[in-house]
């Protein structure tokens, strides 16, 4: 029989799960709004930026999990990718502008999806806090 996680651990697991859901809904809503307002190129740019934002959040989440004393050692691939994420972000931005011909401003706005999701989670916790 597996042991139930402590209450704090369960709280953080639920919060992270909600943040991922917030990122999904913000990405969908943002790309639909961009498509309606400015067309498919802007929507695609926002969606690409949002995808990069989610990937970066996931990498940071895995890094934070690996810092836990009881956690397994981080994978070597993760160790390599974390310092190179800004290089990968720059290369992705170059490819977006050069080959896809999408709106770079929309892609930059999409990079803030993780930030927006964390802010939504903060508001959620403030509204539904049990003290």
Features:
131 residues, mainly alpha
What does this structure look like?
- The protein contains six helices and no strands.
- The protein has helices at residues 7-38, 40-66, 76-81, 85-100, 104-110, 113-128.
Backbone CA Rg: 17 Å
Low-confidence stretches: none
Q: What number is the mean pLDDT?
A: 84
Give the termini separation. 32 Å
Helix and strand string, N-terminal first? Answer: HHHHHH
Helix content: over 70%
Described by the principal axes of the CA atoms, the overall outline is: flat
Record field, number of beta strands? 0
Helix count from the secondary structure assignment = 6
Query: How is the main sheet built?
Result: none
Q: Give the domain tally.
A: 1
Given helix and strand content, the structural type is mainly alpha
Strand content: under 5%
Outline of the structure:
With 131 residues, the chain is mainly alpha-helical.
Which secondary structure elements does this structure contain, and how are they paired or packed?
Layout: H1 7-38, H2 40-66, H3 76-81, H4 85-100, H5 104-110, H6 113-128
Helix pairs in contact: 1-2, 1-6, 2-4, 2-5
């Amino acid at each position: 029989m597996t042991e139930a996680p402590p209450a704090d651990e369960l709280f953080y697991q639920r919060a992270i799960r909600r943040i991922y859901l917030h990122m999904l809904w913000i990405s969908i809503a943002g790309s639909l709004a961009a498509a309606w307002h400015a067309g498919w190129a802007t929507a695609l740019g926002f969606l690409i930026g949002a995808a990069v934002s989610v990937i970066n959040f996931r990498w940071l989440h895995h890094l934070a999990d690996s810092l836990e004393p009881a956690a397994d050692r981080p994978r070597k691939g993760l160790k390599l990718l974390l310092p190179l994420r800004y290089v990968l972000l720059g290369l992705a931005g170059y490819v977006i502008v050069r080959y896809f011909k999408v709106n770079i401003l929309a892609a930059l706005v999409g990079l803030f999806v993780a930030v927006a999701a964390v802010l939504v989670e903060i508001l959620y916790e403030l509204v539904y806090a049990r003290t």
